[in-house]
Amino acid sequence: MKKNNQKMLFVFVFFLSLNLFSQADRMEFVYGDKLPDAPLLSSRGDHQVGVMTMNLVHSNQIDILKSSEDNDVFYDRPLTVEVWYPAKLKESEVAWEVYDEVMGNLNDPKRPLIPFKFYGRAKRNAKPLESDKPYPLIIVSHGYTGSRLLFTYLTENMASKGYVVVSIDHTDSTFRDASPFNSTLLNRSLDDLFVLNEMERLSKDSDSFLFELLDANNTGLVGYSMGGYGALNVGGAGYSPQAAQFFKGISKGRTDLEQRMIGNPVFEASFDTRIKAIVAMAPWGMANGVWDQKGLEGLKIPTFFVAGSKDDISGYENGIKAIYDGAVNAERYMLTYVNARHNIAPNPPPVEALQEGLHIDEYLRYADSVWDQRRINNINQHFITAFLGAKLKSQSDYLNYLDAEQFSDDEPWHGFLPRTSIGLELYYKKGN
Predict the structure, then answer these.
(1) Quick one: CA dihedral 329, 335, 338, 340, positive or negative?
(2) What radius of gyration, in Å, describes the C-alpha atoms of the chain?
(3) pLDDT of 185-228, one tens digit each?
(4) 314: nearest Cα among 226, 218, 185, 190
(5) pLDDT band for position 16 (50/70/90)?
(6) Of 39, 104, 154, 328, which has the most beta carbons under 10 Å away?
(7) Following CA atoms 306, 312, 314, 318 in sequence, which dihedral angle do they give, to the nearest 10 degrees?
(8) Hey, is 124 helix, strand or coil?
C-alpha cells in the first residue's frame, strides 16, 4: 500500500511539473509581446503570420571594395531577405519560429561571432492568406552593422496587421560580413530600390508565393541608423557635396556617390512614386555632413522620425532633429525618447548578451541604459502602426493617435494607459 502511495505521488508530481513547464512555455516573453503598460496599437493584429527566407541577386553592380578611380569592377550582389506575411494556418499549426542570429562582428577579435537563437510568433513557409486586394508592402533596412532579424518585434507585428514585410540583409553591412564603410554608404539606397523592384516583379510572377499578395505601389520604408540614411535618400533627400567628397576620399577616388546627390539626373530619375511613407529611426549622417539644406528639401514623402534625445551615434540636435527641421517640403513627425541614446529600434538583448566577460557592446547593441527596450518596442509598434495605417491603408482614425501634445508629461496621450505616457515628445510639421 505504501509503495502504491509513493508511486501515485511520483506520478502526480511528474504531471504537475509537466504542467508547470507547459505554462512556463506559454508565458515566455517573446520579442514584440505586449507589456502591461503597452499603448493600444502595439497589440498584434488579426492575422497569423508566415515567414520565408529569399535569396536575391542584384546583377552587374559596381564592386566598390575592389574598384578604383581608373578601374571598374562589377559583381552580382547577393541580398538575403526575410519576408513576413499574413498566413493561413491549419488548426493544428502553431505560429512559432526559432530564428538563428549572431552577436559580434566579422574579423573583430574583441567581438567574435557568437551564434544564438531566439523565438518569434511566425510559421516558417506557411501558406499566405489570400485577400480581396493585395497587402501594402513594408521594406525594412538595418544599421551598420546589423541584420534582417534585428526587428522581429516590429516585422511580425506589422505582418499580423495585414502587411507584407521584407527585411534586408545588406551585404557588407551585417554582423556576419562587416566590410569597409564605403560599401554601406553607396549601396543602401540602391539595395532598397532593387528589393522594391524585385517585390513588384515577384508579385506579378504566378510561380512565386508573392503572386498577387502585395501592392508595390503602396510601399513604406522603415530604416534604422544607416537604414534611415538610405531610406531618406530613396525618399528624395540628396546627399551633399561634402558627403560625395568624403566618399571619394575613402574609395580610391571613386565618384559613385555623386549619383545620389540632389540635382544629379540619375538621382532625380530614381524618385519613386511607389513609396508613400518613410519611418526613419535614428537616421545617421546629418552630424557628419551627409545632408545640407538643399538636399533635405528634396524629401517630400511623409516621414515619421524616431530619436533618442541623447543619441551619441547619429546626434540629436545637430543630427536627427536637424533633419526633421530641414525637411521643409515633407509632412513629418518626430517621436523622441527623452534621455535615450541610439538604440531606439532593435529587439531587446538576448539572454546570451547578459553573460559576464562579453564585450559591453554585445549588450549595448540592443539595450538602452535608461529605457526598457521592450517598452520602446511596444511604443514603436503603436506609433508605426498609426502612421503607416494612416498613410498606406487610409485609416484616417489612426491620425487621432498622432495628434498629441508635444510633451507627454503635460497630458495623457491617446491610446496610452493612465500614468504611462511619460518621458516622450512628439513633434509635427505639415510641410510646404
Answers:
(1) negative
(2) 23
(3) 999 999 999 999 999 999 999 999 999 999 999 999 999 999 99
(4) 226
(5) very low
(6) 154
(7) 90
(8) strand
